Amino acid sequence: MFALTFITPNPRLPSPLFVAKSIPESALSRRSIAFSSYHWRPNLRFNGFKLKSATVPENVEGGDSESGSLVKGLKLGGMFGVWYLLNIYYNIFNKQVLRVYPYPATVTAFQLGCGTLMIAVMWLLKLHPRPKFAPSQFTAIVQLAAAHTLGNLLTNVSLGRVNVSFTHTIKAMEPFFTVLLSVLLLGEWPSLWTVCSLLPIVAGVSLASFTEASFNWIGFCSAMASNVTNQSRNVLSKKFMVGKEAMDNINLFSVITIISFISLVPVAILIDGFKLTPWDLQIATSQGLSVKEFCIMSLLAGVCLHSYQQVSYMILEMVSPVTHSVGNCVKRVVVITSSILFFKTPVSPLNSIGTATALAGVYLYSRAKRVKVKQNPKTS
């Protein structure tokens, strides 16, 4: 412990010269106690020097930490709110477009094209640094892009065939395929609690499917297949995009979006044909939407899709995967509820029970994963 000792020619007069002197802590504490009993008067003048008392706030670092945590919490809460809001608007706009324009491959390609344009603007304005990846990563990125493309395409196929609420109820099966693919591709075996949490998910989706008024096998199978492709993308990301050369989440998402757009355009023309002529648009809009409304909704759906997926990746960089999984579960509830209210979807009591059971299972799965992380801190 060091203390400051004043050096003066005359001990009665203060001097600005001082040196550091080492003294024992016990002695220093006794002196500080004695000094604290003496009342110092501010604004005293000695030998031309003016002394002022200064108040130092207690726990300055603690205050900064608390304010920083508060700001981070508010920012994170705002991002979750934006994520949910963009999801709601995307599903509403997208469903209205697919109702009058039954070409999911063309719609998906257009939406990925909107995302590609937004990414180009982001990089040109230097809102985010451009990615740098090694040639050795290209194969892994192409695999991720293929899974990303199929996931978006199959989701749109399902949304065009069945109700939005039913599609998202089926997509509550994502944890089941996450566990299955993790075992097959990564060799990661789930805990007992994780397996138990999958039971209400499977039971709830089954009950909701049997009681769904808009049930359609194409819509059901495409939504289930989108679960496989989306979770394959996530598992492949965990398997390949590790190490010093790994890109950040935003750039990884941006690169696979661009590759998905480039690869899907010829496939969409092959499947649907070129369906963007004025005649095709006129036929599509003859079912209740004007050409202007159709174009605006298509554009907004594309912007919302890319924006909510990018916000999701941004949130994933700020929180743990388990917290992100819980947030995704809440998002599913919000989207299902909002779509039922907006489209006035008829829901039977058994269908409601099935949906609620599946969503409760997703929440239990998130809790089971949290328990596993706490028990194995090294692997998390």
Automatic annotation (TrEMBL):
Source superkingdom: Eukaryota
An MF annotation (GO) of this entry: phosphoenolpyruvate:phosphate antiporter activity
Keyword Transferase: no
Pfam families documented for this protein: TPT (PF03151)
Occurrences of domain Sugar phosphate transporter (ranges): 74-366
Coiled coil segments of this chain: none
Transmembrane segments: 76-93, 105-125, 137-155, 176-201, 207-229, 250-271, 347-365
Annotated InterPro entries: EmrE-like, Sugar_P_trans_dom, Tpt_PEP_transl, TPT_transporter
Cellular compartment(s): Plastid, Chloroplast membrane
NCBIfam families in alphabetical order: tpt
Name of the protein in question: Sugar phosphate transporter domain-containing protein
